[in-house]
């Protein structure tokens, strides 16, 4: 049994003029515990839509999504929200940090609504997470005073704070230069390996994709294998 199983999944929306737009078509994908899978596609190919489905932010209009062998189609909004909060960490291109809150407050934010023990020890957990991503000294700094790479580290610390089983990354290096992007991917790989988390990375960057164990390509909403010849080994580019 796979952790994530998409079985003939589609996502169609009805546009205001009544036209049907098929964003994803017949997507079948299985992701195992601890794997790193990448999905490469051009702008508009449906990457974010696919990631949103996996993260229970959106629902398929066709097919079935099973998480840990359990069908997600019958879940209530409340059950989906609970599973999402406990099971998934998200890392986005634009960091999505709360302005006017310190790095520590940003990292602790997912624990504000979880209740129980973790609510009361949220600041200590957040400080530990910031240490883990190399920003222990910057806990009291506002995001706007941090570099792009540092902001993404804060976002990674925030994504890890509830010990997710899956980290979903949407263009995690898209707003960073190549060197900083490489450091961020090194960090993501390291923290995922340490915690045994599964990593799914969607990107248009074949160098970022090359780091995964398995690679897919999304083309106009259709998922298929990626030709390994297009993958650029990361070290080779840094060295040149
Ligand atoms: N709710 C929606 N209503 C109408 N169109 C949508 C909706 N969601 C997505 N789309 C369209 O579906 C296509 C795929 O969107 P998606 O954001 O998944 O692509 P993407 O591959 O992530 O693109 P990018 O790399 O530019 O972010 C786009 O053409 C987008 O405009």
Automatic annotation (TrEMBL):
<keyword id="KW-0067">ATP-binding</keyword>
<dbReference type="InterPro" id="IPR027417">
    <property type="entry name" value="P-loop_NTPase"/>
</dbReference>
<dbReference type="Pfam" id="PF00005">
    <property type="entry name" value="ABC_tran"/>
</dbReference>
<dbReference type="InterPro" id="IPR017871">
    <property type="entry name" value="ABC_transporter-like_CS"/>
</dbReference>
<keyword id="KW-0547">Nucleotide-binding</keyword>
<protein>
    <submittedName>
        <fullName>ABC transporter ATP-binding protein</fullName>
    </submittedName>
</protein>
<feature type="domain" description="ABC transporter">
    <location>
        <begin position="4"/>
        <end position="239"/>
    </location>
</feature>
<dbReference type="InterPro" id="IPR003439">
    <property type="entry name" value="ABC_transporter-like_ATP-bd"/>
</dbReference>
<dbReference type="InterPro" id="IPR015854">
    <property type="entry name" value="ABC_transpr_LolD-like"/>
</dbReference>
<dbReference type="GO" id="GO:0005524">
    <property type="term" value="F:ATP binding"/>
</dbReference>
<dbReference type="GO" id="GO:0016887">
    <property type="term" value="F:ATP hydrolysis activity"/>
</dbReference>
<dbReference type="GO" id="GO:0022857">
    <property type="term" value="F:transmembrane transporter activity"/>
</dbReference>
<keyword id="KW-0813">Transport</keyword>
<dbReference type="InterPro" id="IPR003593">
    <property type="entry name" value="AAA+_ATPase"/>
</dbReference>
<dbReference type="GO" id="GO:0005886">
    <property type="term" value="C:plasma membrane"/>
</dbReference>
<dbReference type="InterPro" id="IPR017911">
    <property type="entry name" value="MacB-like_ATP-bd"/>
</dbReference>
